Amino acid sequence: MRWLNIFVVLLGFLPVVGKESIERGIYATFIVRASQSATLSLASSGIVESIFVEVGDKVEKGDRLLQLKTKELYQKLQIAKATMEALEQKYQFITHQYERYQKSQMALDKNTLEKIKTEYYTSGFELKKARANYALQKELLDNATLYAPFSGVIVAKNVEVGEAIGGSPLLGLETFDKKAILEFDSKYFQEVKVGDKFIISLNGEKQEIPLVLNKIYPSINTKSKKAMAEALIMDVEIPSGTFGDGFIVE
């Protein structure tokens, strides 16, 4: 009987699952991720001529980050442009000639008219090919320069000047804005709501400004049996990859 009384007393100190535990806070771990991140590469292959950023540099959307050697590409573009312009003049001349012959076709023999007609259609086909080639060479030249797709900070650099590249990862970029990805016991899935606060602890120290949950993931992780949520990090600077824990409260 004595041991039974001790067990009853100890039982009174155990946390009660339900509304009371929710008021105390639901324990959750978290890892910090950038709101948006990207591994950047180029569609074109070539030799790296210039790199304009280093790890830690802040960039704006549209900033030039890396440049391949473009001398050969530029020459090909100029040749394609000259060819296209020459064929445009030729096509205009043949078009005018064809239109004149059509008006006076009664005075021409059938073979001459067919010859002019063939030249007209052939010239048009050649011009289309020249325009397509010019567009291709221009795209290749444009693709030889890597631009920042969004504003953020450079977090990785996997290439150096002089290296040959061909679709391999070159730079890592992530936004300044961060988010905390939370994992908590799935038995609380129905209790946790968007708008709940998340009081985090970093290196054992409780942070004064709580995060606010802005997203509840709709499914449970089948491996960990954990539910997941997300909170934006607005008023505190925490680097990506930071791991910590805390409590979700209403």
UniProtKB/TrEMBL annotation:
Record field: transmembrane: none
GO cellular component, one term: efflux pump complex
Domain of life of the source: Bacteria
UniProt keywords, alphabetically: Coiled coil
Keyword set includes Coiled coil: yes
Coiled-coil ranges from the UniProt annotation: 70-104
GO molecular function, one term: efflux transmembrane transporter activity
CzcB-like barrel-sandwich hybrid domain segment(s): 43-166
Pfam families: BSH_CzcB (PF25973)
PANTHER family reported for this sequence: HLYD FAMILY OF SECRETION PROTEINS, MULTIDRUG RESISTANCE PROTEIN MDTA
Name this polypeptide is given: Transporter
